[in-house]
Amino acid sequence: MKQRWRLIALWFLPIGVALFLAWQVLGNGGGARFSPQPASSSAAGPRNTAVARMSYGRFLDYVEAGRVTAVDVYDGGRTAVVEAVDPDLDNRVQRLRVDLPGLAPELINNLKERGISFDIHPPRTGGPALGILGNLLFPLLLIGSLIFLARRSSSMPGGPGQAMQFGKTKARFAMEAETGVKFDDVAGVEEAKEDLEEVVTFLKQPERFTSVGAKIPRGVLLIGPPGTGKTLLAKAIAGEAGVPFFSLSGSEFVEMFVGVGASRVRDLFKRAKENSPCLIFIDEIDAVGRQRGAGIGGGNDEREQTLNQLLTEMDGFEGNTGIIIIAATNRADVLDSALLRPGRFDRQVSVDPPDIRGRLSILNVHARNKKLAEDVSLEAIARRTPGFTGADLANLLNEAAILTARRRKEATSLAEIDDAVDRVIAGMEGKPLTDGRSKRLIAYHEVGHALVGTLVKHHDPVQKVTLIPRGQAQGLTWFAPDEEQMLVSRVQLRSRIMGALGGRAAEAVVFGHAEVTTGAGGDIQQVAGMARQMVTRFGMSELGPVSLEGGSQEVFLGRDLMTRSDVSDAISKRIDEQIRSIVDTCYRDTIDLVATNRACMDRLVELLIEKESLDGDEFRRVVSEFTEIPDKERYSPLVEAS
Description:
Elements: H1 2-28, E1 52-54, H2 56-65, E2 68-74, E3 79-86, E4 92-99, H3 105-113, E5 117-120, H4 128-135, H5 137-155, E6 172-174, H6 190-204, H7 207-210, E7 219-223, H8 230-241, E8 245-249, H9 260-274, E9 278-283, H10 302-314, E10 323-329, H11 337-340, E11 347-350, H12 356-366, H13 378-384, H14 390-406, H15 414-426, H16 436-455, E12 462-466, E13 476-479, H17 490-511, H18 521-536, H19 569-596, H20 598-611, E14 613-615, H21 616-626
Parallel strand pairs: 1-4, 2-5, 7-10, 7-11, 8-9, 9-10
Antiparallel strand pairs: 2-3, 3-4, 6-8, 12-13, 12-14
Helix pairs in contact: 1-4, 1-5, 6-8, 9-10, 12-13, 12-14, 14-15, 16-17, 16-20, 17-18, 17-19, 18-19, 20-21
């Protein structure tokens, strides 16, 4: 408020000065103004009331002709009011105004010689001081405007006055962060909440830990995929702790000038020490905390300078007692090892995608302000959404609510939930197929996936089969596991390979090998990836339990640039042979399974073309009418690749 009033005063100061000076000059009759009252005015009224004008040449003609009776000179000889006799108007006296080129001596002498009464009126002024101010009026206005613009631009971001602010931290500071989020608002990450509740307890009741010689970790690193709730947990900590809270992003440290990031780190910890105990939250710390030496070219890297200063401030010579740093990242593999050692980020909290209980609790949180129909079961939604993060579930309910409003319904029903799940997983709904041949071919392809997945043992159950295009897919088949699977067996991997090959097998059986389409391109890539992992990573081939290739983690420049394979050419050839053997065996078995159940597949295709979508229960009911095989006698893929 004080700064705003200062800017208002600075803006109106030059305007007020200008108005005051103008009033003084114009009100008191400056030298440039025509004087209203001549000294020799008669009782009839002032002579300056003349409105008619006369040229200077005509005025001289009147003087020569003896028609002028009196002359009053004003404004230093620049203006005159002349009383002249007009013979055309019965010798009536007129008052005329004349603009003179100046008070010349010849004119005065001429008036004296002809006996014409004249009077010279000096200009009325407000004194020498006001005259000086009048002359300085424009420079004062100019200087005042420049000062105002300079002051205003210097206070704006990026202005000249910000040149000395580069080294200051950009962290948002709050004595008590009012985020509106508490631990009760965070669901699905119970293990992470327990670890972070200790941090809040230490800030509120540090004697509980110090009395037994315990030290709270100086830094807590939240690690997890995007959307799992890392930033939400930080907001909950800020809302629960009730201590000064600093929040910023890792990218706010880095500038194009070397040394600016390090200066901002120093300023951040300086302010934090002044307000300890306090919390510092750094989001996306991998922007500044990546491994040093990754620039390859050397030089004075700004990011490395910033990281060095951060390491020193977290656990250096002086220490930072009372300051707890919380950071979040989804790329912990690229962080510098010195940043993860004890004494810095010595506690790493994994924030993983929630299980079914976690998803149910997250849905309960986000459904508080949603109007759901009575037949909507949040538990059923949780079972249908394995792998969904908290952000995905929030988006799911929001999309369902949008569809409800678009369809002008008062409450969200199962239809909106189903459509929202499909939209989140596969994308927006496309235009339905109209070509009968293409529609039938896609129907056989999708039914092939679903039928093989249903008949093969150890495969995930079918959730839905549809011919409605979504995203880039013209048809889709969803499989949903009945339970959370932490480990996958060898026979399960083979079952998944057969399920992925079911679409191509159906095309080959129904239309012939010459008519197979490119629709199985994504399926074949998925099959190749699973088969390669079985051979090279999981030891599920004739090559034995040997890991022949590294993991599938992302390559980080500077660490993995010189990575080379230790596998010989002979082993590489055997790897390719084993992959081909697994895929060929599974494909032959899939072809046989589809050909044996051709009648069931034809019935399912006709039903799918008619309805365009079949849910899992209806699909399994139709399959059971044709193949009444007990579960223990269902087809089981060969374990050995013979």
